[in-house]
Amino acid sequence: MKEKPWQGRFEKATHEEVEKYTESLSFDRRLYRYDIEGSMAHCRMLAECGIIPQDDAERIIGALVEIRQEIEEGRFVFDPSFEDIHMAIEHALIKKVGDIGGKLHTARSRNDQVCLDIRLYLRDVIGTVRKGLADLMAVILDLAEKYTDVIMPGFTHLQHAQPVSLSHHLMAYFEMFRRDEERFSDCLKRVNILPLGSAALAGTTFPINMELTAHYLGFDRVTRNSMDAVSDRDFLVEFLSASAITMMHISRMAEELVLWSSPEFGFIEISDAFCTGSSIMPQKKNPDVAELMRGKTGRVYGNLVALLTVIKGLPLTYNRDLQEDKEPVFDTADTLISTLRVLTTMLPEIEFNEERLSEVLDDGWVLATELADYLVSKGLPFRKAHHVVGKIVGRCVKEGKKLTDCTLDELKGFDEHFGEDVFNVLDVRKAVERRRSAGGTAFSRVIEAVKEGREHVRRLRESLSGDGRR
Amino acid sequence: MKEKPWQGRFEKATHEEVEKYTESLSFDRRLYRYDIEGSMAHCRMLAECGIIPQDDAERIIGALVEIRQEIEEGRFVFDPSFEDIHMAIEHALIKKVGDIGGKLHTARSRNDQVCLDIRLYLRDVIGTVRKGLADLMAVILDLAEKYTDVIMPGFTHLQHAQPVSLSHHLMAYFEMFRRDEERFSDCLKRVNILPLGSAALAGTTFPINMELTAHYLGFDRVTRNSMDAVSDRDFLVEFLSASAITMMHISRMAEELVLWSSPEFGFIEISDAFCTGSSIMPQKKNPDVAELMRGKTGRVYGNLVALLTVIKGLPLTYNRDLQEDKEPVFDTADTLISTLRVLTTMLPEIEFNEERLSEVLDDGWVLATELADYLVSKGLPFRKAHHVVGKIVGRCVKEGKKLTDCTLDELKGFDEHFGEDVFNVLDVRKAVERRRSAGGTAFSRVIEAVKEGREHVRRLRESLSGDGRR
Amino acid sequence: MKEKPWQGRFEKATHEEVEKYTESLSFDRRLYRYDIEGSMAHCRMLAECGIIPQDDAERIIGALVEIRQEIEEGRFVFDPSFEDIHMAIEHALIKKVGDIGGKLHTARSRNDQVCLDIRLYLRDVIGTVRKGLADLMAVILDLAEKYTDVIMPGFTHLQHAQPVSLSHHLMAYFEMFRRDEERFSDCLKRVNILPLGSAALAGTTFPINMELTAHYLGFDRVTRNSMDAVSDRDFLVEFLSASAITMMHISRMAEELVLWSSPEFGFIEISDAFCTGSSIMPQKKNPDVAELMRGKTGRVYGNLVALLTVIKGLPLTYNRDLQEDKEPVFDTADTLISTLRVLTTMLPEIEFNEERLSEVLDDGWVLATELADYLVSKGLPFRKAHHVVGKIVGRCVKEGKKLTDCTLDELKGFDEHFGEDVFNVLDVRKAVERRRSAGGTAFSRVIEAVKEGREHVRRLRESLSGDGRR
Amino acid sequence: MKEKPWQGRFEKATHEEVEKYTESLSFDRRLYRYDIEGSMAHCRMLAECGIIPQDDAERIIGALVEIRQEIEEGRFVFDPSFEDIHMAIEHALIKKVGDIGGKLHTARSRNDQVCLDIRLYLRDVIGTVRKGLADLMAVILDLAEKYTDVIMPGFTHLQHAQPVSLSHHLMAYFEMFRRDEERFSDCLKRVNILPLGSAALAGTTFPINMELTAHYLGFDRVTRNSMDAVSDRDFLVEFLSASAITMMHISRMAEELVLWSSPEFGFIEISDAFCTGSSIMPQKKNPDVAELMRGKTGRVYGNLVALLTVIKGLPLTYNRDLQEDKEPVFDTADTLISTLRVLTTMLPEIEFNEERLSEVLDDGWVLATELADYLVSKGLPFRKAHHVVGKIVGRCVKEGKKLTDCTLDELKGFDEHFGEDVFNVLDVRKAVERRRSAGGTAFSRVIEAVKEGREHVRRLRESLSGDGRR
Asked: Chains C and D: how many Cβ contacts under 8 Å?
């Protein structure tokens, strides 16, 4: 066990159980890259401001570069008795450069240091997520382009409602993921701020230049209040919340993929490479990946609840409870990034069964609204027209026949406004085509939407082509 | 029981239990104002586009104005057998103007209508919340100005850490609420979009002009995909999430008010008008309001979980599950708005006990960092200086004396760098003053922060002076 | 505004906003019956123990009876300036009987009084829930009996797995609700305990007899620690958790009802009386009730999270945060009880489409396991047999033919163990019949299960025939 | 990559991303012991029932013993391309004994196998948790015995309410943990049931004897419905819920330890071995362990929400979403068990500062109820007595003097019933002693409670002395 940096006033060594219970190295070690990046910027600033000699700064930075390399090459020993990644790296630093290594911690505390690390980490994660969303949107556009011409029943209440373009259905998800990207972008505004220099909680007495450190690290600005800076974890909650909403969307798409893969629906066939079988039933081909995506929504919701619970009712400023902030965020980031990637890879491997889609439209129920609209065009108020068509449908159901099977005479029996031209509206393709209102399912509208979407993704990717920062 | 608008194809009447189970009028009636506002805009647009005669439109709008007045004057009878507020109003409309009332529902469905209503409602709520946050920030600035000169122990782990300006502590909350306001403002971008015209799910065949309706209602734009438009509830989840974070902040402040009111802390006295007593213990004066604020955080978290759960795994597009979207949002809005108002009213009624704050600083532990910094200024690396001071503290604790009681000789016994000038740093006021880094607690920094904050609130209020829309 | 019972030491009146913010009368008034029941028992005990004169007790009880009647007949005025139901009733009491009414509050506090009320309330609720579960189980047994002979595909991953008896599928839900009832019964053990006499937190100096009060009220025992007694809300969390699990089960059944109602599945037809239509699409018949049940799961989950959040980190004993305990419990109880009732009423109104169930089994995929088991019976290890049948299935899928279409020669081409007798196992009825392991789907097993289930419900109802208490 | 056991009907190999996304071996490998235990019992049963030859069974069991040893000695290679622990072990088995290893999977499926494993695992965990709770209760009893004679202010609203015995306060936690243990014991009834033999979902055609397997494994009974058996995860949710309540209790105790450690309270001193310091402030001694316990409540709440979310709305029977059941349970079990252990180790290392406890009682406010009770004994109704004392308190606060400083004349000025004997009740020790109601704080009551508690723990430990099963 190493001596603690704060051992001075303590008489007893930390209890072994406590070491294990309170250590965070086992999970915060993944922040090493950000910890070193932050330390190097801090060190440069300290030297620039004349707080530490330039020579010392160079030796420190050189040693940090070495440490990073050792970690990346797997040669670094993470001794669990160091409480956290900050201590593990500082200890290695001092071993390399001796006492001057101790100067690095001038004008900072672990309280602001860990906030810096997690902000750097999250900035990267958000960049990756936004790129992942851009890729997913691009794949949806591909599918939408491929299936522009295919008609399927649009559902409400999992009942056939009105015919829609399959592309239109897919583009609904495009919109969801587009909003998700916006939310991550908004969140980034509150992430990309430098807290380092807030020190333990009150700021520091050393004549530091936080703007300079912010500049080195690409931050938009510095925090405005040191006490807030070391206890603020809003940006993490906001990230978890944006992730929860994204997973909520993915869970909806996954639900549909599962439904559509069922023998009863039979709308799609997912490639063997994205399905698994059963250890006991040789015929099974299961849409496991989609199910698992739906399931993983649970853990992301849970992570959000976890962090909200942790922070509720905490007095200012830093409290050790806040150590519990990292694992839910890491787990969410990993889940979200991998889910986006797998979904993006899987979608092009899905074949829609156009024949089946056409078949399920065959009974014509989805055209009932057309009939009602037809009557409105003949002068009936909508409410009345609706009622008449309801009666017709009721009769058809009873007699087990399709809506399109009705003769003109039969229709006239319900309302005399029906004329020969009614059969023109009893056509799913026309029904789709006629819904030309903004955002409607008309083929022309969908083609426009895909085009506008392409342009959006192009611009987004351009803006992300740097390092994912705004 | 009224006949349902969709009764046509049904043979059996709705079961009475089902009526009760599925009705939403008991809670969605509070949307009446938005439902009517939306209907009037829709009606104007329909007439403008020649879909209904101008005369009919005028009669409809006239009747809607009457209905609104009846509701506001409590003369309107909400018959629970109408499923929802939309039906209740439409029924009243038809009673007033006859069959032409049925024309209002042309080119829309309840699916897009309810989305419109809730967006109008939420836009108002967000305006109120942002104003409430501005008021709260203003009150915090007043307090910060009042107590600029007062010093208190800054806490980490609920232990004395370093001395800070009381104003600095208060301004940490200012920052939190400032971010909250930003989040609501970001959310508004995704709220202030018109869905009406998406109809049931696929758009409408009528030649409507959604941009016109959007213009009438002050929306930024129209939705891009009709299927998404009727099933999207993201903006509600996002509102709940922003509210949860705001309540999280309030719960932290409430926790501190409760702590500080305890006899052991004794930092503050809350006015009698904001405390309650006990039915059995005559001496009790309880900070109930702060406790209740902290407690109400629970319901807001719960509401967020509720809606996330509802939407998870729902296939497109509208499903009746979504009816469960309103109550959590209403309850959250009510809770948040009233909590902000009560907190804003209570804060000026709190007196800080300056004597007590000074007393608890008396043992000087909060100056330990100053001693360490002193040694650093004499050339010791920080880590070493920290260790020396730790030993001094340990000795003082053991001997039951204050840090400021140590003689120079005693200090020299621990490290020979100590000199007569050490006693200059052993002063809480100087300790505060010396933390001049950006966002630090130095009095000058805090005064700057208050000034900048005033300017921010002024600009924010200006931008909100209209109707709360961006 | 009424003078508060604790006004003595206060100089300022409660702020009007605070009155509104802290009042609970608007929701705790529904506890009136329990509050009065508890007060009457307390009063009898006080008199029995000689703490108040018998005469006073009689007058108090008489007045309480009157008050209860006034409330039940709607003649009681709930003045919101009374903080809560306890104060409202006590005030009415004192108005009726004068100063001696003040004696009722001897040896108790609102802290223990509210705990008593909510325990009495919850005991009733649990009784109702358990009866509701018994009724639901009985209805499932009816259906299971009705459809014993019907075969359907058993699903895993929403894919056809193996044929099962429809009754077997239904009886899976029977098991879930049976466990739910057990959990409520376990919870009741921790509800049915008397806290009254714990007073504010420390017990009382009056020589009360809590066992006597417990006896009057039908409690199993009295609480063991007064401080725990006034701050314990575990039993509410436990109730919310048991309710969440029950709603989780209902959400699964609801999901299946929605799926099965879709045109693609077409397994069931729900009676018109339990469906609703669309205001725009005349053909729609939506399984709204099932969807809403699934959706209401969200609010119950949210309520659980709300209360867990409220209690987390509260120091002993009573804190005002705990006032937030009631609404989530009331809302959950109302939701659960009405959902159980509606589900129980709806289930018998569902018709299964036996023809359709048979049709979807027709391709024979569900018999693949039978083929594998056949090969095992001929000596192949299971893993090998599985592989062979997998190959056969793959070929059939490719050639677009059914498993039952394969000739013996074709089968032999995959493995020579196949013989003429293989066609005996290619039969869904036999496949069901042969699964005779404990809890298996064999008809005989299911009939047994239904019989045992009947007996269970009979015994349960018997035990609940009293007042719902254990 | 290994060939999958279900590769038969598949043409394409699983996509590499899918392998990684869907594998569970990285976390379910910790179930190895239970998987092997279950397989051995299954194998014995198969042989006993004549389904496989006795010789084969012996070879299989022998190989399983070897595999277990290899795993325990770290010699087993967990190849991630095996999807899960079941496949990894079966593959190793077949490598050892050849084709007959394939016979082990007769009459079972991974669906029932994983349910068995997790039930065996959870049974062990519950045993450990119950023992951990017994140990914690024992330590609380020790403290309660040690401090029977110490008086502290009892708090409501974090204000001094009435004096209580410190032991009484501690025994409130005893009651909480006692209920927690009860809940885990109730949960165990629903865990300790054998699902193996339910096979994929429908039971098996092999003539197995599930009761025999249950007997070998120490289960109370076998599941009653195979479809329920493979999709039931209630017992996991119930475990998570019981854990959440336990952590809720721990968070309350932790909150108090943090509060009491603050300089303002100063009620306790936690041993150096259970505190940590600051990297920047040499004087800090932080109650980190208690803070972290409070914080870890968040993750346990989150895990509960995660699993509830996963299962909501899933159709029968097994769906891959359910793979997400394990990590929240593992994380909760690890968190709960370690937290219980650390808390049990830490509690005896806490010293209460009796002098400080006595000092904070000195102002006498906690005796206000005594004064009121005194007036009741002189004939005033309680409400009136309360009011009089409120006035006295108000005056004392204003004049800055203690309640015990009032002279008889001053008291008489408020109410003439005061007599010389009033000074007898103005004594905290007497105030404690007089609260002799059941569960009250009187010393005699507390001593009784500790004694009864000892007996309870003794009996509990006895019942747990076996293997943690009921």
From this structure: 398
**Residue contact D284–B158, C-beta within 8 A:** no
pLDDT, tens only, B211-230: 999 999 999 999 999 999 99
Determine contact, residues A369/A432, Cβ cutoff 8 Å. no
Does the structure show a pLDDT above 70 at D1?
no
Predicted pLDDT of residue D129: 98
Q: DSSP state, C275? A: -
Helical (H) or strand (E) element with B141: helix B110-146
D265, D276, D283, best to mutate vs chain B, most B CBs in 10 Å: D283
Distance CA B87, CA B78 (A): 10
Tell me the β-bridge partners of C351: C269
Q: In whole angstroms, give the CA distance from residue B17 to residue C338.
A: 9
Residue B78 and residue B29: Cα distance in Å, rounded? 8
Mutate to test the interface with B, among D281, D292, D371 (most CBs of B within 10 A): D281
3-class DSSP state of C28: helix
Q: Looking at CA atoms only, how far is residue C237 from chain B in angstroms? A: 13
What are the φ/ψ torsions at residue C161 (nearest 5 degrees)?
A: -110, -70
Mean pLDDT, to the nearest integer, of B367-395? 88
Show which residues of A are catalytic.
157, 278
pLDDT the model gives residue B466 = 66
* Strand-pair partners of A270: A350
Helices B110-146, B32-48: inter-axial angle, 10-degree rounding: 130
Q: What integer best gives the mean pLDDT of chain A? A: 94
Instruction: Determine the distance in angstroms separating the CA of C315 from the nearest CA of chain A, rounded to an integer.
Output: 12
- Please give the C-alpha separations between residue A293 and each of A171, A284, D320, D429, in angstroms, as whole numbers: 20, 19, 9, 62
Written as one string, the DSSP assignment of C193-258 is EE-TT-TTTT--SS---HHHHHHHHT-SEE-S-HHHHHH--HHHHHHHHHHHHHHHHHHHHHHHHH
pLDDT, mean over chain D: 94
Structure tokens at D48: 């006993």
Chains that touch A (3 or more CB pairs under 8 A): B, C, D
Nearest CA in chain B to D290: B157
**Helices and strands in chain A, H and E counts:** 19, 6
Question: Quick one: fold of C7-106?
Answer: Fumarase C; Chain B, domain 1 (1.10.275)
A258·C157 Cβ contact <8 A: yes
Identical topology for domains C111-196+224-359+449-463 and C365-425:
no
DSSP class of residue A84?
S
Closest CA to C252 of C332, C148, C351, C343: C343
- How distant is the Cα of D113 from the closest Cα of chain A, in angstroms? 11
Mean pLDDT within C431-448: 96
For residues D114 and D169, is the Cβ–Cβ distance under 8 A? no
Q: Would you kindly state where each structural domain of chain A is located, as residue ranges?
A: 7-106, 111-196+224-359+449-463, 365-425
What is residue B11's predicted lDDT score, i.e. its pLDDT? Answer: 80
C-alpha closest to that of C234 among C86, C111, C119: C119
Of the residues B26, B278, B338, B444, which is catalytic? B278
Residue-wise pLDDT tens digits, A260-269 = 999 999 999 9
Residue with tokens 């992570």: A303
CB contacts, 8 Å: A278 with chain D: 6, 109, 200
Contact assignment for D306 to A301 by CB distance below 8 Å: yes
Are the beta carbons of B449 and A224 closer than 8 angstroms? yes
Question: What is the rounded distance in angstroms from the CA atom of residue B34 to the CA atom of residue C455?
Answer: 55
| Structure tokens that stand for C289 in this block | 């009730």
* pLDDT tens-digit map of A169-188: 999 999 999 999 999 999 99
Let me know if domain D365-425 sits in CATH 1.10.40.30: yes
A111-196+224-359+449-463 sits in which CATH class?
A: mainly alpha
Q: Both tokens of residue D11?
A: 């043409």
A335 contacts on D by Cβ (under 8 Å):
none
Compute the distance between CA of residue B159 and CA of residue A109 in angstroms, rounded to an integer.
16
